[in-house]
Amino acid sequence: MIKQSGLSEIKKRYKKLEKKYKLPNFSELNKEFDVEKVQERETDFLLREIRRVMSDKVGAYLRFLELFLNPPAAPLFVLISLKGMVAHHKEKIEEIYRELVKIEIRSIALDVHYEEQEEAKFIREVYKKWKEFKDDLKSICKEIENLHSKIEKKNKTYYG
Asked: pLDDT tens, 40-85?
């Protein structure tokens, strides 16, 4: 059980699981998903808590991308972004969204029935997928940022 022993205790416990299940190293996982947050909770199920932290980030991106796929309910910045976005990025948003939905559903299923081995498999696979999506997400966000910069330069009063 994790108590107030801190990050070093979590890292020790994770190291054993990392070897057992061939997981990504803690430092890399932490860099991508802020898994050090698990130290805030007491648990006997470290991998489940790590999976939940990872799922939180996946869920945040899922909701963000969903704005671009369901624009009638989207904020103004999304509508403006969609108008100027290149087709390639729109396709990437759809592709990444579909994969994130699969991840979200798998995470919910793991909450229903706990198996350490399945938690480890989820962590490995999501980490790998995240690394694949990361550059595309960065590129999409950069394009959105550039579109809004151009609009601001063109019309200083557009946003207010």
From this structure: 888 889 999 999 999 999 999 999 888 888 777 667 777 777 777 7
In this prediction, residues 1-23 reach a mean pLDDT of: 84
The total number of structural domains that make up the chain: 1
pLDDT tens digits for range 117-154: 999 999 999 999 999 999 999 998 898 888 777 766 66
Phi, psi of 70 (to 5 degrees): -130, 65
Angle (CA) 84-86-87 rounded to 5° is 125
Burial class (CB in 10 A: 0-12, 13-18, 19+), 10: buried
Q: pTM for the full model?
A: 0.82
In a domain, 160, yes or no: no
Contact 90, 68 (CB under 8 A): yes
Domain extent at residue 89: 45-154
Burial label for 92, CB within 10 Å (0-12, 13-18, 19+), is: middle
User: Would you say residue 71 lies in a domain?
Assistant: yes
* Domain assignment present for 116: yes
Beta-carbon contacts of 59 under 8 Å, excluding residues fewer than 6 positions away, are: 104
Taking the C-alpha atoms of 138, 102, 125 and 18 in order, what is their torsion angle to the nearest 10 degrees? 110
